[in-house]
Structures are given as structure tokens and as C-alpha cells.
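seq as requested:
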Amino acid sequence: MSLTAEKKEKKILLVEDDPSTRMIIKEILRKDGYIDMLEASSGEDALSKIKEFRFDLIVCDWHMPGLSGLQLHEKLQTNTELNKAPLLMVTGESVKENIVKAIKAGVAGYVLKPLSPKSLTDNVNAIIFPNAGK
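C-alpha cells:
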């Protein structure tokens, strides 16, 4: 099976409180070949979808009302009943200490806003297909 065909079979959850940013991320990923995406507008909304579906990747903003992206990641790591999908943090949070905190917490990747389509797709592909370029 080709990588393009495999991308169509992967399920991604987009967690972003800003609808415009969510739409941009979705369009970038769609152009790269990903078609099975669900959206959540908050960490709480994401949790309910994670309980219902199995995801190959969660693309998540850091700063959201209620449950932040990092708090969502921590819940996924500590709750054995939840899907352990890797989480790619997409955020404007560029404070070095916070980036280190997220990486130490085990996020799979970190992409800064404003988004570069190439940076986003490179990170998504590296997480979902870690051996594709080897």
C-alpha cells in the first residue's frame, strides 16, 4: 500500500478553540492526503471524542478555555481507558520553558503558530509514519 493510500486510512482529531485555525489545519492536512478528521473545539470536547473513537494522532492547541492542550495530554497519559494516540502540540506558546515542559510531558511534537504548512505536514507525517523515510 502506498503512503498516500495509508494516509487516507489514518484518523486525526483536531483540537482547537479557534474555528478559523481549525479550518486552516484541516485544509493543510487534507491537501497532504489525510481525509479522516474529526474536530473538537475544547479539551473537554476532545475527551468525549477520544472515548468514542480511536485516533492515530491528536493535533492540539495549547491554550484553550477549560482543559488546556497540555492538561488533555496528561489525562490521556494517566487514564488507562483512553486512547493513547500521540499528541502534536500546535500553538503560539513559544516560551522555552513551556516547550521543554511539553516535551518532558511526552508530547510527540511541537509546531509553532503562525503555521507553516510544511512544518505541520512534516511533523504529522513523522509521527504517524516514523519509518517512512528510513
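The chain has a mean pLDDT of 93.
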